[in-house]
Amino acid sequence: xxxxxxxxxxxxxxxxxxxxxxxxxxxxxxxxxxxxxxxxxxxxxxxxxxxxxxxxxxxxxxxxxxxxxxxxxxxxxxxxxxxxxxxxxxxxxxxxxxxxxxxxxxxxxxxxxxxxxxxxxxxxxxxxxxxxxxxxxxxxxxxxxxxxxxxxxxxxxxxxxxxxxxxxxxxxxxxxxxxxxxxxxxxxxxxxxxxxxxxxxxxxxxxxxxxxxxxxxxxxxxxxxxxxxxxxxxxxxxxxxxxxxxxxxxxxxxxxxxxxxxxxxxxxxxxxxxxxxxxxxxxxxxxxxxxxxxxxxxxxxxxxxxxxxxxxxxxxxxxxxxxxxxxxxxxxxxxxxxxxxxxxxxxxxxxxxxxxxxxxxxxxxxxxxxxxxxxxxxxxx
Length: 381
What we know:
The structure is a single chain. By secondary structure, the chain is an alpha/beta fold. It has one domain: 3-Layer(aba) Sandwich (Rossmann fold), CATH 3.40.50. The chain is built from nine helices and 16 strands. It has helices at residues 2-33, 43-52, 179-194, 207-222, 244-254, 276-284, 299-305, 310-327, 358-367, and strands spanning 63-69, 72-77, 92-96, 102-107, 111-114, 117-120, 146-150, 162-168, 171-177, 199-205, 227-233, 289-295, 332-337, 352-353, 356-357, 376-377. Mean pLDDT is 90; it is low at 1-33.
């Protein structure tokens, strides 16, 4: 009898410990699926980006000089510290402190460069990107936001991390595709002077639009809990699926695939549609808002860059962005117009679609006015 009681006692003890172990395991599992309070990115996405060492170029750029250019401060970096232009000249960033807790980071455009195709801006001048929300007009909502203007001179749409030796008639020369380093240097400046920002808009035009793909991720890592808005004007991240060899060249020479998480399945390691990174970001950050602007048959991105006819480019553009909007209709919206022009917001205060000014439309994304910030496909698809 005593033996039976003892066995029953042991059985109860085992059950208690088993129940406790099961409860502990479920608690741990639950914690793993919760958002990381230190970032608006999901815990899984943050862990993946950290394993990719996306922030490896942060806080490494060395400032060589600062000078005033009109009302802006031009910061030039030591090339040996990473930031550098395509042909080895110095890289610089401009900033304007408007004593605000809201900041714009605007990525300029200017072509691209890979073997067999090299038509890109190769150096930084003294001019500041003044397009779209950077307008100083008093009726511009963003006129009192701090501004970080990021020139484009790396030939790799702010995504490269490589140096390529190419043969020329004069011998050999080196191309510096240091887009990631240049972008990181710009974010260093943003953190240094505008580290207390509560809202950040990262916008890009043409090649700079493509740059927002890696740029929005870098901004989120640099500013984990800020309200983040993305504006991609005419650099939608689509690639001609028939140009496999060209895509492979860009991957080999730029190494932009280093910026693409494996969990972005639609990106296919860089061989797919890079616009799917917006889908990835929206899936993993429940607060980010993204605006995409384009002309349907943009001759620069569609015909020249992707070697597609106008109608074929339009079909690809709509197919890729339709799926993103369908999955996140409240936080991903388009402002698209008929025609072959390039860069919608060059006409910031005049161009309209469905009776809405483009300036009002982008503003409404930030202010939360969904009666204005709506998905606009002018004249239908």
